[in-house]
Amino acid sequence: MQEPRSFLIVALRRIGDVLLTTPLVHSLRQRYPEAHIAMLVFKGTGAILEGNPDISRVIEVPEKMKWPEVKAFWREHGRQFDWAISTQSGDRPTLLAILAGRKRAAFIPPEAGKAWWRKWLIQRPIVWDDTPRHVVERYLTLAQQVGASPVARLVPPRRPDFALAERLPERDPTKPLAICHPMPMYAYKRWPDAQWRRLIQKLLTSGYQVAVTGGPGESEKQALETLLGPLSGQVLNLAGRFRFAELSEVLRQASLFIGTDTSVTHLAAANGIPVTAIFGPTDPRIWGPWPSSALDGRSPWQARGPRQQSGNITIIQDELSCVPCQQEGCDRHLESRSECLQNITSDSVFLRS
């Protein structure tokens, strides 16, 4: 039987989630070294795949595809791939996998009424259950469906030509570099500014050169300046200065990274450096940073613990009984406070970093 020569991996999610699909791609590349492997992602999220040697092509589509765009996708990619693999159980990613692949593997919802057409059109269906399993573990079950052994290794973006001394002349090579990422996308994942300032001051006093990262938006840059306050002149502000692949190269040079539940925290973890992740409502069993040592494909994380450590990753959580609630903060909206994050102190993070 002829081995597959082409794959399409459908990952229509946020940028950090796309990075977490790279163990699936890496597993396919190890099993099928000559195959053409393409990724289908939302516009803008393909940046997290730059320089990935396992990927032959990145295809980007709008977040809200209209019918003419679906038809254009069919004309260009219809039945183009031996296998199309959807990492999600939703209708749109499943439909695009059906259009693009001569064979398909995908997650399907457990409700029989919703799944009937998927079972008919998908050769390798996997029922998506509510068991709290890490997404990396789930994605790797898709690799097994097409004959590949799971290899649980995240592959970060790369820019081999990146010259740190030229692009970051403020870097003091005589000091260890600590990188902090205080700005998650949503407020309910945000650790208090006052605690960040105390932590950064402790790092500076301990002899680190400290850098903070953030997005390119002016509002986020201003928020970082406000957070830093009087420490602004002592800290490297990298917000908006680097693409993801370039930031990945900066992270590789760091001695320490501290962040909340964000894509940059996953990126730091993928680079194998020591990472301290401050978690609030999010369940680390599902979304915890993936340790570089967890190559057996099994997540080491429990639902809650004041300090969990595995490989290069340390997760810090509060001990409230409601942690992790998997909700959007205490008030159940994106701009909500999260009491479990308010309770974590800079002392507890610093001692465990």
Number of strands: 13
Termini gap: 52 Å
Characterize the main sheet. 7 strands, mixed
Strand and helix order: EHHEEHEHEHEHHEHEHEHEHEHEEHH
Which descriptor suits the 3D outline?
globular
Instruction: Please work out how many helical segments DSSP would assign.
Output: 14
Helix content: 25-40%
pLDDT < 50 runs, ≥5 residues = none
Provide the gyration radius in Å: 21 Å
In CATH, the homologous superfamily of the largest domain goes by the name: Glycogen Phosphorylase B
User: What share of residues are in beta strands?
Assistant: 15-25%
The CATH topology of the largest domain? Rossmann fold
Q: Look at the helices and sheets and give the structural class.
A: alpha/beta
The domain tally reads: 2
Write up what this structure looks like.
Helix 2 packs parallel to helix 6. Strand 5, helix 5 and strand 6 form a beta-alpha-beta unit. The protein has 2 domains: 140 residues, 3-Layer(aba) Sandwich (Rossmann fold), CATH 3.40.50; 185 residues, Rossmann fold, CATH 3.40.50. The model has no long low-confidence stretch (mean pLDDT 93). A 7-stranded mixed β-sheet has the order 9-8-7-10-11-13-12, with helices on both faces. It has a 6-stranded parallel β-sheet with strand order 3-2-1-4-5-6, sandwiched between helices. It is built from 14 helices and 13 strands. Helix content is 33%, strand content 18%. It starts with 5 loop residues before the first strand and ends with a helix. By secondary structure, it is α/β, with parallel strands linked by helices.
